[in-house]
Design brief:
Helix content is 74%, strand content 0%. It is mainly α and 338 residues long. Helix 4 (93-99) packs parallel to helix 6, helix 4 crosses helix 8 and helix 10 (206-237) crosses helix 15. The termini are far apart. InterPro entries: DUF318, UPF0718. Keywords: Cell membrane, Membrane, Transmembrane, Transmembrane helix. Pfam families: ArsP_1. It is found in: Cell membrane.
């Protein structure tokens, strides 16, 4: 019975994906067919344009993420992980944060990587530090931020320094609250493989890597599509005048810009250029909040997190991250920018 339910659940997911792609194709081709006797509303065309741009922007990084995830599945053993990560849970936070520098991937691509590492034995809080740090601490993000704020490079250094501090604090809270309890959602095939142990250890071949990467990509793609579609709806229909009114207040501006970053779901390699365009409208503190929060949590990776982790954990993780980012931004804003 459960097998039948899982089959229909997966089938429904694929049908929804095909339906969305079909709709996008029709919208994209609107005006290309002379048989169309009507013109779609501009808002609908705008939703379509934003949706496609998000997907095109995210797909290369998602592919990178699932490929790295597959390499980890094939070649990284539990024993090797235990040697790399310090046994002290508190000391393990710092190398985990520094490890993010070596993963130049966005917030979407890092999700399957961290999921795979946790399955391999990485402690939960260490994995979440890597998940938060990789999209923001990598050199590509620093360089793009430096270029975007070349007239005020302090923003680039503040982003990197505060991000490092924030993810360490969040990792500490996650360890204190959840310890090493398993918070992953395990698929039936994962449980079968885990129960059989070494009997199901896959062969270390390039073909096997590609097989796992393709399987993970299609499993993850439905969450990316849904998240991108909702984000495009928000960007099209949200009243920007309300955002501008709230952004003029030093107290309300940071949380407003965090919410804006969450909804826009921008790639961390490009969000600095969007943030720089708000400099004449919003305070520096709110711009910094935008730059810190967006790469850590946005709508796209929230959908993915709910797909791979237990619901209560994801909610707690989001609440902790929001509170820590907001608190650090308020403190930094009052100390540095008055």
């Amino acid at each position: 019975m459960k097998v039948t339910y899982n089959f229909f659940k997966e089938l429904l997911g694929y049908l929804v994906g095909l339906l969305i792609f079909g709709l996008i194709f029709i919208l994209f081709m609107n005006g290309s067919f002379t048989s169309f006797s009507f013109q779609l509303p501009k808002s609908v065309i705008n939703v379509n344009t934003i949706f496609i741009s998000i997907i095109i922007e995210a797909i290369p990084f998602v592919l990178l993420g699932v490929f790295v995830s597959s390499l980890i599945q094939m070649y990284v053993s539990e024993e090797r992980l235990q040697k790399i990560i310090p046994k002290n849970p508190f000391l393990a936070l710092i190398p985990a944060a520094l490890l993010g520098v070596l993963f130049p991937v966005c917030e979407c691509a890092i999700v399957p990587v961290v999921r795979r590492l946790i399955k391999k034995g990485m402690p939960l809080h260490v994995g979440m530090v890597l998940l938060l740090g990789a999209p923001i601490l990598n050199p590509i993000v620093f360089f793009s931020t430096y270029v975007a704020f070349r007239m005020d490079v302090q923003m680039a250094y503040a982003r990197m320094g505060l991000a490092f501090l924030i993810i360490i604090i969040i990792g500490l809270f996650i360890y204190l609250i959840f310890g090493n309890k398993d918070q992953l959602k395990w698929a039936r095939e994962d449980l079968v493989a885990s129960a059989q142990g070494t009997a199901t250890t896959p062969r270390k071949s390039f073909k096997a890597v590609l097989y796992h990467a393709s399987d993970e990509f299609f499993q993850m793609g439905k969450y990316l599509i849904f998240g991108a579609f909702i984000a495009s709806l928000f960007q099209t229909f949200f009243n920007r005048s309300i955002l501008l009114e709230l952004g003029s207040n030093n107290l309300s501006a940071p949380p407003v810009m965090m919410g804006f970053a969450y909804a826009l779901s921008l790639c961390s390699e490009a969000d600095a250029f969007i943030a720089a365009s708000f400099l004449k409208t919003f305070s520096k503190g709110s711009i910094l909040a935008f730059l810190l929060f967006g790469p850590m949590i946005d709508f796209k990776n929230t959908i993915m997190l709910f797909g791979y982790f237990k619901t209560k954990f994801v909610i707690a993780f989001m609440v902790i991250t929001t509170i820590v980012v907001l608190s650090v931004v308020y403190l930094f804003q009052s100390m540095v920018w008055g």
